[in-house]
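Bug report

Summary: structure tokens for Acyl transferase/acyl hydrolase/lysophospholipase differ between web form and batch submission.
Environment: batch mode, default settings.
Steps: 1) Submit the sequence below via batch. 2) Compare with the web form result.

Sequence submitted:
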Amino acid sequence: MATEVGRSPLDTDGLCLLSLDGGGVRGLSSLLILKDIMTQLNSAREDSEVLKPCDVFDLIGGTSTGGLIAIMLGRLEMGVDECILAYTELMESVFSEKINKVPVDWSGKIVSQYDSKRLKKAIESVITRVGLLPTDLMNDGKPRRCKTFVCTTSKDTFQVTRLRSYPVSKETALSVTICEAALATSAATRFFDSVSIGNHQFVDGAFGANNPIEEVEEEAADVWCTTSRALKPLVKCLVSVGTGNAAQVPMDDNMLKFLSKTLVKMAIKPESTERHFMARWSNEVKGKRYFRFNVKQGLEQVHMTDFEKQSVIESATYAYLHHSSEKVRVRDCILNLSQKEGKTNIDLETSIREHGARAAHHKILQALNLPDNPFHHREPACWVVPFERNPRYVDRQVVEKLKCRLFAKNQAEKIAIFGLGGIGKTQVALELAYQTRELYPDCAIFWLPAVDMESLQQAYQRVADQLGITLGDTREDVKRLVKDHLSRPSTGRWLLIFDNADEIDMWTDSQISTTGGLKDYLPMSNQGAIVFTTRSNKVAQYLAATDVIEIAEMDELKATLVLRNSLISKELLHDTESTRKLLSRLTFLPLAIVQAASFINENRLTLANYVDLLDGQEQSAISLLSEDFEDKGRYKSIRNPVATTWLTSFEQIRQQSRLATDYLCFISCIKEKDILISLLPPASNIEQQKAIGLLSSYSFVRQRFEDSRLDMHRLVHLATRNWLQSVNLLRKCQLDVLLGLDMRFPDTDNSNRAQVRASIPHALQILHRTITEDPHPARVCLLHKVARCQIIEGRAKEAERLYSESIEIAETLYGPNSYYVFTGTYGLVDSYFGQGKMKKTVKLSEEIAERQKILHGPDSIETMHALWRLSRIYRITSNDDKARELCRKVIPYFLRTLGPGSMVMLDEIVSQASSYLFDPKLLVASELSLQSLHMNRTVFGSEDGRTLRAMCDMGIIYLKRWRLKEAEALFTEAFETKKRIFGGEHPTTIMLMGWLSVTLRCQGRRKEAIALRTECLRCSVKVYGLDHDITEIHYSYLESWTKFRSFHSCIDLLPHARRAKMIFYHRSTYTKVKKYGLYYVLRQPRNDPLLLEIVEVVRGMSISRQALSDTVTQVEG
């Protein structure tokens, strides 16, 4: 029986075209119609990936403001919602102000009524919003999800010109930027100035093609059926979207009005174009392959500049879409588009023609095989192919080239496919086998693996069995018998596929001494064809002479399709940045992509995780590079000539510049990207620039223009390490880098935050590389610096690991009671606190204080410093009595020994004030906190951690005193500052967000408070985990604010009721309240002598930033 021919390529891969009319602000109507179509289309699909118009349509064309939309949807690849927002903002910006009310000047020359510079600025804003530059070319040579063109009109010839995002054969295209194309298509006469591009001047395309449907038709024919011009059989779905019918107005008798208005409307009227086109495409309309959507009523009085009538446009469009007849047409359009499986190839016409031929063959064979046909007893054609058809195969046009050569001449065809291992040669040959079977059902097809002689001999035996060849003598060669059989004309049509024909010795005399090489066993017949797949171009030319097809590297679009077809979780591809990184790392190699997808599926990873693993497997990458860069590698660039060039270049650099060599070695030991020049070994500016210039001349490093940082090529980075290892210098270089980074690691203050963040990955890298080395003092210091940075950045868990390692090394080098051990232990306390491990925080702080007391005595600076830190921990954990008790010991000591201007004293003032948050002495503490906040803000600035901590404490005091607006102002300032510097998921940011939500809740702003607390909960889950105490606290708050309330709990909604309850609750927790009752609550608080003393000292302080800085340095030293 004949095989099934399958679905027509028209149904699955036919052309989907989109045409967009011009119409000024009414273009919003087009976008709303498109939004309805895309929303329903995505809802109808089972795939979770949300499609954009550029994913569905093969070609998008537009004119005037429709051209603007076409660029946004096609070239900028925006979603419809994103496009609507950008389009409405652009229209309002451009049409909000007229610069000329009369369209002509006194000399009769036409002048623009609107500002063309404002239009250009608005377009540039849209382009930059999506991450591109206005100077980027419309056609930059890169593959796109869809082809895009816009219509513009030459001012000189009045001919319509198409500006494209893609090349067209046999036509010289005008090189234009995205911004120039957008301006040219929308430069409507009377409204904007004409646009100059090179020596040409353009006005908008509406004069020649306000409805560009005929331009879309002609353009599609230029691309997909250049010779035949028969476009209709190739079109699966053609969608034309208008901007609403214009009002029917009589012709003006006034000459000025006739020239400026009536004549323009006659020139751009799209309805006549629509009628003529629908008459020609009437069969496609009936076949539900052409759809025209255009609002019939409601937009007649909306002028193209009436941006303020957005609500009118929306209402008329929604009414149009909800009409029963339009609902049916939209549904038919979606049903058509939903069957589209992939982008349309250039050779669609050939595919449809071949499918028609297969269908005709199939019908004939079905008729021949009917039971009453006396000739239906013929045996089916032989089929020896060991693999099933690959349902994930992505067409690369190679199969079409092969099919065009098969059986094209009256002689035996020999064709070789060669390419890098893993490039997809076997899959191409497999698809060829199945398509040949469909195209020629009478063709016998045999697959022979040429990996080695044994497997090939077994394959020949299977072929002989299928052909009915019997071996009368065991000494007979099966290969010779198969050759003789296939060479007979009576055998009929056949196809031989030799897969993996990589060893040339198998095809020459050296492998088969008695009868010659395998080439002598190839059959010859004008009804046969032989296809070889090989990694060797030498083998390909030996076997097929000039009939050689090289499989080129996949482009990004097709590689993405391979990845998509191989992944179980398609939504992973939403991370487009990681998708591009992964494909780039794998050099778009199909086999590597499939293997990566298999690993991701099995381990449930994200694409970013896999990229990290791929980047982290240095040893395997170095091993790959060390294999003399042969083709065994899966990276296209790793070849022997490259390795030779690099090794030679290393030696040349070594001879020319010692500093450049040092830089090369230094960079190879840290991360290859984002390298600060300040981290490199010091040298004069001239010598430094010469060394970097030398490395750049060999393309080993690239210096960024925007921030002067260095990036090294990843493979050069690995090859350099491999080279250092081969000459036994890698270990020495890594130790030198460890010392250098310790010396040159930037200070952790606000002014150096960008440099610190850039230095952390490099420091972590060298710490990781030297982890097996003997203990070294520089390692301890660098661990402390990096761990401190991790604490500041909110990565407390990473800091815990670093501090733990530093303590272990410091104990080995200096003993358990050394300064470095205590520094690491203090840092470990901070890391515990940052993770919310309060029990560990308190316990370790108490142990430190006890050890310092034993080592240095109760009145030493070391002991007081430990007690000061312990008092802060007690205060944070709400153990205020113990905190104040320690403060009574520490503060007089610090006032006496360090003075009021020391950093430690300022921190202690904040801590002391905070310990009175729930105390009757709140009024005095408020004054002290306010003074402390002022000092910290003056000395350290508003973004310093001390200032933010004082700000938070003052906010809490205001909250407890029910000064809610002042509390909100402080919490908001601190929260916004922290969020801007460290991000929304920093622990301190989350804490400030929580306090701000409480403040809003106390003001009765329930919705805002719940929204903020919900965000707190989300961030907390991400930072701490689902079962952490801090996460549970946020959840309990959220639950209490949102759950069903009793009558008494509803009373708490009243701000004054909550205030009274809060005051009584906090005061009722004191011991004396239980003894004296309400009488104690109403008593005036007694003044604390120590607190009053501190207040008086602070009042008399006058500290400059420089003076405090010197004091801090002295204290820390």
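Above is the batch result. After comparison, the two runs are identical; trailing whitespace caused the diff. The chain has five domains: 9-338, 379-550, 556-616, 617-746, 913-1111. The radius of gyration is 39 Å.
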